[in-house]
Amino acid sequence: MKPMKPLFDISSNFTVYLLLGLLLSIDLSIAACYIFFSLLLITWIVSLLKGSRIPALPGYFKYFLIFIFFSLVSTLFSIDRIRSLKDNKEFFIFLLIPLVLAVIDSLKKLKLSLIAVLASACVSALIGIFTALKAGGVSLDYRLRGLTSHWMTYAGLLMLTFIFFFVFSFYEKDKKNKIFLASSLVVILAAILLSLTRSAWVGVFVAIGLFIVYFRPKILYAAIPAVIILGLFLPGPVKGRLVSIFDLHNATNQDRVYMVRVGLAIAADYPLTGVGPNNIDQVYDRYKPAEAQLSNPHLHNNFLQVLAERGILGLIAFLLALIAIFVELIKGIRRSAGLLKQVFLSVFFMFIGFLTAGLFEYNFGDSEIKFLLFFFLAIPFIRLPGEITTGGVKEEATVRPAGKNLRMNKGDEQ
Question: Are 167 and 345 in contact (CB under 8 A)?
Fold first, then answer.
């Protein structure tokens, strides 16, 4: 019998339960998510004071630190420093990346964390579908949001989980696991469609389409007609919302154009440091065209938002972080095998979906989205027993088969 690890050992069962609680809460309660995160952070700090080491961080993390630095500079020159300073509490969420790397040190813990993410998404999807059925359907006046604060948050979270496990399932060899994943994905996709959130739809479409091209392009011959047939059976509100994507006269589409004009105008007046984090709504009406009817708290585009809020220096740091993430993920895909490659691929296409949706929604500014995104961005770089490091990227010393990845087997590392 192995001795129990001390309570404040960062890889103890206690911290694993905190991480699982956080992951289960992401889709269901942001308040609970912050509570688990705070407890996890306190435990980590105590363990560091007792001599624990900070885990080796992915190369992209230093660019996130540069982004945080320029955001703080932007806060210093903000048009409303108090608002910006309050918004800066979001920087603590970046610490989830080293926390995940410190807590998850075995295959079993990795599997449990993935199960927690999938379970949270499934419960959230079922809650959304149930409430829609209870209300008699969905419309733009009543859109699925589950237990989240907004339908875009709801759909954005489900989108990330859907893309990750869709790719993950293609490399799953165990039939029972594959059926379980397929059933879960159907439920999650149904909720995404019924949320009527077009940015999430586009994110899923682009990420999955590129994955199919990568995995087996011939599947497209069957996928395209399947999508067309599926479109015929979609509910009326979903069809209408889908058609609206291509409607240049649609009010929300026109509003997106106005946001681009407003964002560029703000950046022209505040080029170096922007107006400060969380201040777009303070100046939006000053810049919006006369024909624009809506006022917006943000610009529905990650890049425009960062540029207008934090200036060109903040945007450059943000872009460098994104590029570094892609570079490290591509290196990992090329140099890894088995389960590790499965995770690298799933995160890579999930990240494509996140960035695609972020062209039409400021999803990087959403706390829940960042919690889930940073978890996914951390897990390819977890050091598991039996791995070696080559050229800065981990490889498995003994190649594992891709199958039986989610099932808890007796032989899993403890």
Answer: yes
Give, as one character, the DSSP assignment of residue 105: -
pLDDT of res. 388: 42
3 state SS of 102: helix
d(CA 91, CA 21): 21
Is the pLDDT at 367 greater than 70, yes or no?
Answer: yes
Q: Which of 287, 394, 413, 274 is nearest to 338 (CA)?
A: 394
Element (H, E) at 244: helix 236-244
Give tens-digit pLDDT for 203-216.
999 999 999 999 88
β-bridge mates for residue 396, sequence order: 387
Where do the structural domains in the chain lie, given as residue ranges?
13-396
Query: How buried is 341 (Cβ within 10 angstroms: 0-12 exposed, 13-18 middle, 19+ buried)?
Result: buried
How far is residue 311's CA from residue 264's CA, in Å, rounded to a whole number? 11
Where do we find the tokens 């395209």?
224
Predicted confidence (pLDDT) per residue in 291-309, tens digit: 777 778 889 999 999 999 9
Tokens of 221: 């011959």
Contact 317, 63 (CB under 8 A): yes
Task: For the beta carbon of residue 64, count every other beta carbon within 10 angstroms.
Answer: 22
Under a CB-based contact definition with an 8 Å cutoff, are residues 118 and 161 in contact?
A: yes
Length of the chain measured in residues: 414
- Within 8 A by CB and 6+ apart from 220, the residues are 209, 212, 213
Of 48-57, 115-124, 397-406, least confident by mean pLDDT is 397-406
